[in-house]
Amino acid sequence: MTKTPPLSNNPLFISIMAQTLPNHKHIIFTIFIFSYLLQAQAHQFARKLSTKSHGFKKEKLSHLHFYFHDIVAGDHPTAIRVAEAPTTNTSRTGFGATVMIDDPLTVGPERTSKIVGRAQGIYASACISDTRLLMALNYVFLEGKYNGSTLSILGTNSVFSPVREMPIVGGSGLFRFARGYALAKTLMFNISNGDAVVEYNVYVLHY
């Protein structure tokens, strides 16, 4: 009986492997590089994008007009003091007083006017020598196509100035990438209970 030589000694097998292994090495190397590039892209910290890739069209300027009702007194206040400093009540500006708000925004100056949104956030007395508030709040809109969209304000409000300007620093929904400014004008301030109505004109650039 003839003994079959091992494959490792078979010239035909050696020839086939010599032709196949380089191709396999090339395929394995290609897969490795491709996987590495995919992984590197997945963990990339930052990259440039075009506005069109996110569906953004031409930037536009919008003007919003509404009335802000700061309700401090009564059974259903929308502005509640949540913090103060030990010296707040002896400070002539109420320095350190911090108020959480969920104030209605209306079409007209009357409290019964149609609500188009809420001002939600905080304001705090942030000046020892003057009545100035730090405003950190969101306008959360409820009306029409703006329902669910927001604008964010972060700025100083010198409440006894005739007109105050505060920056719009961002937004969401229809106001993504928003920037602009808000002009505030007090229409009514009840010195006995702290209630106030403020007219707002907001000018905002957005996509």
TrEMBL record:
Query: What Gene3D superfamilies does the record point to?
Result: Allene oxide cyclase-like
Pfam families per record: Dirigent
List the keywords (alphabetical): Apoplast, Secreted
Q: Which GO terms describe its biological process?
A: phenylpropanoid biosynthetic process
Q: Which family does it belong to?
A: Belongs to the plant dirigent protein family.
Subunit annotation: Homodimer.
What is this protein's record name?
Dirigent protein
Which organism does this sequence originate in?
Helianthus annuus
